[in-house]
Specification:
2 copies of one chain form a homodimer. Chain A has a domain of about 140 residues: Tetracycline Repressor, domain 2, CATH 1.10.357.10. In chain A, about 75% of the residues lie in helices and about 0% in strands. The termini of chain A are far apart. The model of chain A has no long low-confidence stretch (mean pLDDT about 95). At the A-B interface, α6, α7, α8 and α9 of A face α6, α7, α8 and α9 of B.
Chain lengths: ~200, ~200
């Protein structure tokens, strides 16, 4: 079947997810309406409820989990290309700074803005953000153990590194400079070295 | 003039600011409506526009700046009671964890949730959050210099410590545990020691 000229060939459901992901990470959950999602994804408004019968909450839940998996895959790819865990994490922080600059400070963590909003207001979505953060932490802690960090120290160190990254994202976006990410990268390298990672 | 029995004696304008601050830090900017602010502050709806002719944006701007000044005063007080800058910052991180537990993980940074939301959507409010973060950074960097950190290292270290705190707030609220704040406190202590602060 040929696509009608001018018609996007990306499936409607994927266009909705992609548009919602972009809007949610930039504007947050309360600030994003389904009409705007429909408009940005070039999808009929009714198709959102067709694909996501649970409406905005179901759509956001899938956006958070998909965005979390994508971010984790990006991390895996960067670490696979690095000569060591230390170098890989340094490259991840450097890439975060570059992405912030390239996107005019709009494109940061895929879940942080929504995570802050829903933590005390929507327990279903809070759990989605908790699941995503836990998946990142487990992966990072595992890599730190592989790199030689003592098992008992790996999870606290993973928490500190992830907090360093998330805090730097927020400060960079608010201040419109990557100075906080540069400082976070140096602090992360120092904490990793102190933890005994190769 | 005696207060009418049962009538709050806190001035209306202050009640509006206090209620708005609580709602904004828990729900964010887009998720907080002026009707809810009026209801929670026991103020007539019209009085919000009387005191804040610029409406929700003006109210939020004042809430962010007032909350930022309050947080800075809290930091100053904790440091004044500590035997050293190192101990003071450690006490501040410990207090942050206690506050999270005591408030069922609702009461964290006074500006972070709104800062994430407005960074790419409302430049006036983004500037308010940037001014607040800068005021904290300047104070923290100054204290680090006083404690013996080299002047050139003080600002990057202040950025790293603030990022550590903000990231930990987000992770604690999402995961409903103070484990990230405990890890952040240890990481902060390590970074401060490495920076040469007394």
């Amino acid at each position: 079947m040929r696509a009608v000229p001018g018609t996007p060939t990306v499936p409607t459901r994927d266009r909705i997810l992609y548009a919602a992901a972009e809007l949610l990470r930039r504007q947050g959950y309360a600030g994003t309406g389904l009409k705007q999602v429909a408009s940005c994804s070039q999808a009929p408004f009714g198709s959102i409820y067709h694909f996501f019968p649970g409406g905005k909450e179901q759509l956001a839940d899938e956006v958070l989990r998909t965005g979390g998996a994508f971010f984790l895959a990006l991390y895996r790819q960067i670490l696979a290309e690095a000569p060591s865990v230390r170098d890989g994490i340094a490259a991840f922080f450097a890439g975060a700074g570059e992405t912030l600059r390239a996107t005019d400070f709009q494109d940061a963590c895929p879940i942080a803005t929504v995570a802050g909003e829903v933590a005390s207001t929507n327990d279903a979505l809070r759990r989605a953000t908790a699941d995503v953060f836990e998946s990142w932490l487990a992966e990072l802690a595992g890599d730190l153990v592989t790199a030689g960090v003592a098992a008992a120290d790996a999870r606290p160190l993973a928490f500190a590194l992830l907090a360093q990254l998330e805090g730097a994202f927020l400060l960079c976006r608010a201040l419109r400079t990557t100075e906080p990410m540069d400082a976070a990268a140096r602090a992360a390298a120092s904490l990793i070295a102190e933890g005994g990672a190769r």
